[in-house]
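For reference, the entry.
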Amino acid sequence: MYMLGKDSLDVRFVIIHGMGGIGKTTLANIVFNQIASQFDGCSFLSDIRELSQRGKIVKLQKRLLSDILNFKSIEVHDTDFGINMIRGRCRHKKVLIVLDNLDKRDQLVMLAEKCEWFGPGSRIIVTTRDSSIFTNNASIHPKEYHFYEMEEMHHSFAIQLFSRHAFKSDAPPREYDKITREIVKIIGGLPLSLKVIGSSLYRKRDEVWHQVLAKLKKTPHKEVREVLKVSYDMLDYEQKEIFLDIACHMAGERIGDAIAMWWACQFYPNVNIPVLIINSLMKMENDHIWMHDQFRDFGRELVRSESFKHPGERSRIWCTTVAMDVIRKKQGTKEIVALKLGGQSQVCNISSEDISRLVNLRFLELDGGNFVGDFQNLLFELKWLSWQNCPSEFQATNFSPSYLVVLKISESDITNDWGGWSQIMGEGRLKALHLVSCRRLIKTPSFSTCSTLERLVVKDCDRLVEIDPSITMLQHLKHLEINGCNGLRVLKGAPTTLNLGTVRQSWPDSLGHLKRLSTLRMEKLELLEHPNSIGDIFGLQELSLSDSFVE
């Protein structure tokens, strides 16, 4: 707080640096929450390292501008455009920005490079494992950059933190005092390791405690990954599969969608997700999955170790360059269960021959490209298909992933008569459908073959006019979210959860027939008339109207 100098009118950068798992993000988050009210605009950008590796810097720029300017949606065409917008729109505002987990200088350049981008009194907090990306740059002015090195916890606090997770108290019981001190001495003062090992020992037998102590004694001091492996090895098969899915592909996804896939895989998520949460290996935040980057790195290293020389023999491939190399060289094997392809100007058309050997593929994320050829008797295990920049023409035939439960299509030119609808949605097992930023979509596809659908999200489809009337056939639909579809005029259905956002229309009378509706959320809804029929929704338990009004 002293380094931040709250009464100073200069623009100041505070760099919090230290090893992974030492608490940099936690500290930044606490400080952010304490001082946010003193600024005109605030933005906390989480895990920049991971998002930039996935080519999402433009999305980070959009998020920063949206937070600072308090706009729901801001268009950023490319990184240069984003830099100019940040520089032009924020220079008269006193802002607080947290750039969490920076690992390259270029990330700072594209988000908050110079003091003159921001108004007097602005503060930019950066967390990083590597402070040399700042100190090695000759253009840095010492008066603008302040460095705070995170140190390990004092031994007494380390015991307290460990005890909170191992015993749900601030100190160990007398009979566990000695072994607790031994374990904490080996782990050191790393909060992440203390939480994980402590959580894994909660309510465990004495023999397990001694087994863990023996394993820890064999690990080099402060080797975090080896410490994490002790906890990972205690998981069951299904728990390990869920953990690796999150580490490699699913951090940031909605928990409801993930649960649908894991149920279809018979991983029993209702039992195993709580185990991972209790063991501090994952979190749920705002209905989304969250995992510490240290766990993600650890999980990915476990997958790499499955075959260091031959990526096609690994269970998961999240790096698009490696994945495309495997596909092009036809080196894929039955070991692959999850795959990410395309993106960053790499167009990848997938033929039936490319995919024929991936008989256990259950998760596929595709950016651009197309499916080409006859897919008869293929993709029987596919449970999740996420397709960004999907082309308007569907080139595959007999494309029927029989057990698909999650379909996500975004930033695409598809229309309601797109050729893929009848093939992809024809098997009737779909649980979740997301249509996001589909620029040419005027009407949603028919839901007549999707009687099992439970979640429907239609977001930022500017030209959307109508939700297909077959939505009334969805007897299992529990969650309907419609946001940023300004042209929507016709809405019918029977969901239990409804989220309407940024819609200017007459109140749909059909909503009065939604007897199963339990939650209704509306953001920036401009109604042309008073919603009289809302009184007919007898099952409504929660009503939230955010920035909405009636003319």
